[in-house]
Design a protein that fits this description.
The complex is a heterodimer.
Chain A lengths: L26 H12 L5 E4 L3 H6 L11 E3 L5 H17 L11 E6 H6 L2 H10 L3 E7 L39 H6 L5 E5 L4 H13 L4 E6 L3 H4 L6 H11 L5 E4 L2 E4 L9 H5 L10 H22 L10
Parallel strand pairs in A: 1-2, 1-3, 3-4, 4-6, 5-6
Antiparallel strand pairs in A: 5-7, 7-8
Helix pairs in contact in A: 1-7, 3-5
Chain B lengths: L3 E5 H11 L4 E3 L7 H12 L6 E3 L4 H13 L4 E5 L1 H16 L5 E6 L13 H5 L6 E4 L3 H15 L8 E6 L7 E5 L3 H7 L16 E2 L8 H30 L6 E5 L5 E5 L3 H12 L6 E6 L1 E3 L3 H8 L4 E6 L11 H12 L6 E6 L8 H14 L12 E3 L4
Parallel strand pairs in B: 2-3, 2-4, 4-5, 5-7, 6-7, 11-12, 11-14, 14-15, 15-16
Antiparallel strand pairs in B: 1-8, 6-13, 10-12
The chains are: A alpha/beta, B alpha/beta.
Bound molecules: thiamine diphosphate (TPP), iron/sulfur cluster and magnesium ion.
Thiamine diphosphate binds next to helix 2, strand 3 and helix 4 of chain A.
Chain lengths: 314, 395
């Protein structure tokens, strides 16, 4: 992809049917709508149990226009491995036309990927299946009612890290899923965000062209889980990038490229302020999160070889 | 017709899988199943079988990948034992509910704890409520043939259910017997690759594994029940056709010994062979005894069980698995009693638990079982033991 895409390049044809039961303002709904537009029409999707699966396939209706398979919660990566292996051998044996390259995409939530599905994901990445795995990360087990996961960030209220006299929300940092994927030496990993749709397109398109296992980590705002007004989804998602708590980048051939540079960052407080799940945080805790973001930004800048994400503007 | 070769049970199974020309194999090592998959790897490595082998990182993923591959239209195979089967449990329900014709071999082994790699039927019995068609072989030839027969039942458009073919760990998996191998051409003539099930076809995209709410879930289950019922007929026609082509006859249950026995011992797996040998030894000593081998366990062949058991004076049921706390601590015993009772017959049956964790079932154990049954012969049902009798254990 040589030219930068704009919103005008996005196909008009919808590949993710409306009428699903996702919440108003669901970030994952925006993601699915655009991911399915960016994918080839004949790609096969394997989906883990979770919000997206449950809200889009209430029999006899479905939002999916692609061939789509759901097996269970922790095994989207294993199921996708099976689909990919089947396509390969059926082509070789002449059952499927050899010239047709049907792509395979696995989709799971953060719980289904970072936690219960990490073993199957590792297997998929390590064995080198030609599969794109997309994790939509709403930073908790939303489908079962906002329980913390390994992707829940420091400080966040969830129903299993409540705010009380002793506890003050989640006390551990988010797991580094990109680092885990990179440790498998995969050819492509990237992050996407529903406030940056052309960037999302560029990355899905690119991932579809690359052979082998790929992981895309998608930022996925959740209205009831994060406790913000439904109209603010894109605002929240954009603020995540503007404060540097979320960075849009890709790693290809060991080279990190920040795709949404942020010359001047906003203080992370402005991001946290938008979420009810962070309402209880003390100045001290917010300072701790700011330090964490500063460290993450410095690390990414170092890998990028230049200061792509600038300092916090005063 | 194939040639006769000496093969271990596991190798015999692997030859059948090769002859079925499976497309995808996904499996994870566990004793005593492992050598099936090793042999299959060798076949692929040598170019004797064109299949994808997915070296999954667990049995949970082994069956999940098998589901994915089957959903994509491939003929798939997997195998496991014991802890591996327990780890697959969740996906076993899903495979049968998605109506995918996966074939899996269980090299039967005890379940932990204590950890024990030897044979009994704990793993097999633990998954008997997962909606799979289930068969168990008595000898290696049968274990070989069962794999071929299994694909015929599984892929029958009236059925479309996954099938377990089981053989006893070590006693069969690692024991060599002469085997007539069903060759690829004759196998594929018997089980042509027709792709009879719904799959993930980009030309006709479908959603598989949808959410079924109270409006629909029940109908899915009702249809699944019907499919299992139909598998009974599919089993009959499949073994019939198998015997016509290959000359080896199997049935859901098989009676051996006296044609009109007073005493009948019901059993499964290799132990049936021991029982046959024992009955041969004691024939003509005044006891009219027989052994009833149960080959097809799910769907449970009530028709034939009834046919052979009604009117029998004393029935002994040998279970090589134990469900503590159940009304039928021996699961096969439970099926027998239920079958008799629901058709209005007295359940003149006693439960024997024996051979757990690989302890061999010897002729002396069988003698104990038989003499117990002789003792109990005249007793009314209410006086028969209501607890299982444990044979060959230190009390
Ligand atoms: C083995 C198993 N354990 C637990 C569940 C219950 N469960 C279903 S969805 C879900 C949460 C999914 O969380 P995540 O993957 O983050 O997706 P989200 O719902 O947040 O989109 C859980 C815990 C399950 N379906 N299977
Ligand atoms: S709970 Fe969150 S992730 Fe789930 S549908 Fe609603 S907004 Fe989307
Ligand atoms: Mg989640």
């Amino acid at each position: 992809m040589s030219r930068t895409l704009t919103i005008k390049d996005i196909p008009r044809e919808e590949r993710f049917a409306p009428g699903h039961r996702m919440c108003q303002g669901c970030g994952a709904a925006i993601l699915m709508r655009h991911i399915t537009k960016a994918m080839p029409k004949d790609a096969i999707i394997v989906q883990a149990t979770g919000c997206v699966e449950v809200t889009t396939t209430l029999y006899p209706e479905t939002s999916w226009m692609h061939p789509w398979l759901h097996i269970a919660f922790e095994n989207a990566a294993a199921g996708a491995s099976g689909v990919e292996a089947a396509l390969k051998v059926l082509k070789r044996k002449g059952v499927l036309p050899p010239e047709k390259d049907v792509r395979v995409v696995a989709i799971g939530g953060d719980g289904g990927t970072f936690d219960i599905g990490i073993q199957a994901l590792s297997g998929l990445l390590e064995r080198g299946h030609d599969v794109l795995y997309i994790v939509y990360d709403n930073e908790a087990y939303m489908n079962t009612g906002i329980q913390r996961s390994g992707a829940t960030p420091f400080g966040a209220w969830t129903t299993t890290t409540p705010v009380g006299r002793v506890w003050h929300g989640e006390w551990r940092n988010k797991k580094d899923i990109i680092g885990i994927a990179l440790a498998h030496r995969v050819p492509y990993v990237a992050t996407i965000n529903p406030a940056y749709i052309p960037d999302l397109y560029m990355k899905i398109n690119k991932a579809m062209e690359i052979k082998g296992p790929k992981l895309i980590h998608a930022y996925s705002p959740c209205v009831p889980g994060w406790r913000y007004e439904p109209a603010l989804t894109v605002t929240v998602a954009r603020m995540a990038v503007q404060t540097g708590i979320w960075i849009n980048y890709e790693v290809e051939n060991n080279t990190l490229n920040v795709t949404t540079p942020v010359p001047k960052r906003k203080p992370v407080r402005e991001y946290l302020r938008l979420h009810g799940r962070f309402r209880h945080l003390t100045d001290e805790e917010i300072e701790k999160i700011q330090e964490f973001v500063d460290k993450q930004v410095a690390y990414v800048n170092k890998l990028a070889g230049k200061e792509v994400i600038g300092p916090v503007e005063k | 017709m194939g040639k006769v070769v000496p093969l271990s049970g596991n190798t015999a199974v692997a030859y059948a899988v090769k002859s079925a020309d499976v497309d995808v194999i996904s499996a994870y090592p566990i004793t005593p199943q492992t050598t099936i998959v090793e042999k299959l790897a060798e076949f692929i490595a040598n170019g004797e079988l064109d299949a994808e082998m997915i070296h999954v990182e667990s049995e949970h993923s082994a069956l999940s990948a098998a589901v994915g591959a089957s959903a994509a239209g491939a003929r798939v195979y997997t195998a496991s034992s014991s802890q591996g089967i327990a780890l697959m449990y969740e996906i076993m329900f899903i495979s049968s509910s998605l109506r995918l014709p996966i074939v899996m071999t269980i090299a039967a082994r005890a379940l932990s704890a204590p950890i024990n790699i030897w044979n009994d039927h704990s793993d097999f019995m633990a998954v008997s409520d997962t909606g799979w068609v289930m068969m168990m072989a008595e000898n290696n030839q049968e274990a070989h043939d069962d794999v071929i027969i299994a694909y015929r039942i599984a892929e029958d458009p009236e059925v479309l259910l996954p099938v377990v073919t089981a053989l006893d760990g070590y006693f069969m998996t690692h024991t060599i017997e002469p085997i007539t191998v069903v060759e690829r051409e004759e196998a594929l003539d018997y089980i042509p690759k027709k792709r009879t099930w719904y799959s993930l076809d980009p030309a006709r995209p479908i959603t598989m594994g949808a959410l079924g709410d109270p409006q629909w879930y029940f109908e899915f289950k009702r249809q699944q029940y019907e499919a299992m019922k139909k598998s009974r007929e599919a089993f009959n026609t499949s073994v019939e056709e198998f015997s016509r082509r290959f000359g080896r006859r199997y049935d859901a249950v098989e009676l051996y010994g006296d044609d009109n026995p007073d005493i009948l011992i019901v059993a499964m797996g290799h132990v049936v062979g021991n029982l046959r040998a024992y009955l041969d030894r004691v024939r003509g000593r005044g006891v009219k005894a027989g052994v009833l081998k149960v080959k097809l366990y799910r769907p449970f062949p009530e028709d034939l069980i009834l046919k052979h058991l009604q009117g029998v004076e004393m029935i002994g049921v040998i279970d090589r698995a134990l469900v503590p706390g159940s009304t039928s601590a021996g699961p096969l015993y439970g099926d027998i009693v239920t079958t008799l009772a629901k058709h209005g017959f007295e359940a003149r049956a006693v439960s024997f638990i024996t051979g757990l964790g690989g302890r061999p079932v010897t002729h002396s154990h069988i003698e104990t079982v038989l003499s117990k049954l002789v003792d109990l012969k005249g007793k009314p049902v209410r006086e028969l033991p209501k607890e299982p009798l444990f044979i060959g254990v230190r009390e």
